[in-house]
């Protein structure tokens, strides 16, 4: 990427933006929650893009509030938010966000700031944030333009949605099912980096809007197929949780076609070093980690490779066969937090319990590169353990499922 993150705002505008940072820290989520309701009411067609589960649970508003706060505190040097911009831009490209949607967001974001803060949102503050938003939006538009170009330029690459046929549907556990996908047109399709994801567009009967969900590619890169492994989520009466996952499990069969965008994401395995590799996952967070684990054994079999996975019990432990080491230097450890009788017979079962600081110290080397994925609680537990262990920051790599809420 060759995009400049040097702010062109004048000093007065930047000082105004920085002065609002404490306000965003206090009222940011209220503003962004109001923003999403306002924008989606005025532009219901955007419901095709946004995940309603993240709206109901507050994850999307919290994530946007955090992004605004980061922009406000780093307005002097926006290069500090470059990694976050790349992560968000990858998601936007996968969702097919277009430049013409940015003015809509800007209009409703500024209006929401004014409506929530009232008289505290002076004309100077709104004007400053209007300038800042335009500058930040332009950065995103440029980054995403490069991503669209790179995606289309790959061998077999494409932009937009392309139909893929479900060639195989395999149950992995009580909750997880894998879907093997091949292009319906029979033409070549691009490779991907272990850790990346694809977006599926779901046209669910009876639903007003299409639903888009991002699923990690759960197999090592193959010229033969893409694979996603989807956890069935129980549908609550008050939230849309599990709508697409249940639809995939119940309504999609072998031979059906799914609209798919090209692989995206910046959570990727680096196999160029010599240090040990440690992979950790919890539940369906195994999907990108399994891809990395299998690839590492193929491309770097001489390195020491560790995989630690935790699940509630063997019955919900998906992708277990993919966790079996095939390299002489690889080892797998399985931990169950609520094991059933007989679960201790599971291959590579280590012990009951969670992954914590003491367990990591006793099981893996500190000088490794760490890759991990799972629910927020798991991510923060591992992060706390690695920070307590003083593991170098550039050796820590992780991905949250859905927007990071704090």
UniProtKB/TrEMBL annotation:
Cofactors needed by this protein, per the record, are: heme b; FAD
Point out the signal peptide segment.
none
Q: Does the keyword Metal-binding apply?
A: yes
Q: Where is the FAD-binding FR-type domain?
A: 159-270
Which Gene Ontology BP terms does the record give?
cellular response to nitrosative stress; nitric oxide catabolic process
Reaction(s) catalysed by this chain's protein: 2 nitric oxide + NADPH + 2 O2 = 2 nitrate + NADP(+) + H(+); 2 nitric oxide + NADH + 2 O2 = 2 nitrate + NAD(+) + H(+)
The protein's enzyme class: oxidoreductase
| A Pfam family hit | NAD_binding_1
EC number(s) for this protein? 1.14.12.17
Q: Which residues form the Globin domain?
A: 8-145
**Any GO MF annotation of the entry:** FAD binding
Question: Which family does the entry's similarity section mention?
Answer: Belongs to the globin family. Two-domain flavohemoproteins subfamily. In the C-terminal section; belongs to the flavoprotein pyridine nucleotide cytochrome reductase family.
The molecule here is called Flavohemoprotein
Per the UniProt record, the source organism is: Salsuginibacillus halophilus
């Amino acid at each position: 990427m060759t995009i400049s993150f040097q702010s062109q705002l004048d000093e007065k505008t930047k000082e105004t933006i920085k002065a609002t940072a404490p306000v965003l820290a206090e009222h940011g989520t209220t503003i962004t929650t109001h923003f999403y309701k306002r924008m989606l009411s005025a532009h219901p067609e955007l419901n095709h893009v946004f995940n309603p589960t993240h709206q109901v649970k507050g994850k999307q508003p919290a994530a946007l509030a955090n992004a605004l706060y980061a922009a406000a505190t780093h307005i002097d040097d926006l290069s500090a938010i470059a990694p976050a911009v790349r992560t968000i831009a990858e998601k936007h490209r996968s969702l097919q966000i277009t430049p013409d949607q940015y003015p809509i967001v800007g209009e409703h974001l500024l209006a929401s700031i004014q409506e929530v803060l009232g008289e505290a949102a002076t004309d100077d503050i709104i004007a400053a944030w209007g300038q800042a938003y335009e500058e930040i939006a332009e950065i995103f538009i440029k980054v995403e333009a490069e991503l669209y170009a790179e995606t289309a330029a790959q061998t077999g690459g494409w932009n937009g949605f392309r139909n893929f046929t479900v060639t195989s549907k395999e149950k992995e556990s009580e909750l997880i099912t894998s879907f093997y996908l091949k292009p319906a047109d029979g033409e070549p399709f691009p490779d991907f980096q272990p850790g990346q994801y694809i977006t599926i567009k779901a046209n669910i009967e009876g639903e007003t809007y299409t639903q888009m969900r991002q699923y990690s590619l759960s197999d090592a890169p193959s010229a033969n197929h893409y694979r996603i492994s989807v956890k069935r989520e129980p549908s609550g009466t008050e939230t849309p949780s599990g709508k697409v996952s249940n639809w995939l499990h119940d309504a999609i069969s072998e031979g059906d076609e799914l609209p798919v965008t090209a692989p995206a994401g910046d959570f990727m395995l680096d196999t160029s070093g010599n240090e040990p590799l440690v992979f950790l996952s919890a539940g369906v967070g195994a999907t990108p980690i399994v891809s990395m684990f299998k690839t590492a054994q193929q491309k770097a079999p001489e390195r020491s490779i560790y995989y630690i996975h935790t699940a509630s019990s063997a019955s919900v432990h998906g992708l277990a066969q993919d966790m079996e080491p095939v390299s002489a230097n690889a080892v797998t450890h399985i931990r169950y937090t609520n094991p059933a009788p007989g679960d201790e017979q599971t291959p590579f079962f280590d012990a009951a319990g969670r992954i914590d600081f003491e367990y990591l110290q006793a099981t893996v080397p500190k000088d490794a590169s760490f890759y991990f994925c799972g629910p927020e609680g798991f991510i923060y537990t591992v992060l706390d353990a690695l920070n307590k262990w003083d593991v170098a920051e550039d050796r820590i790599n992780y991905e949250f499922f859905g927007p990071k809420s704090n």
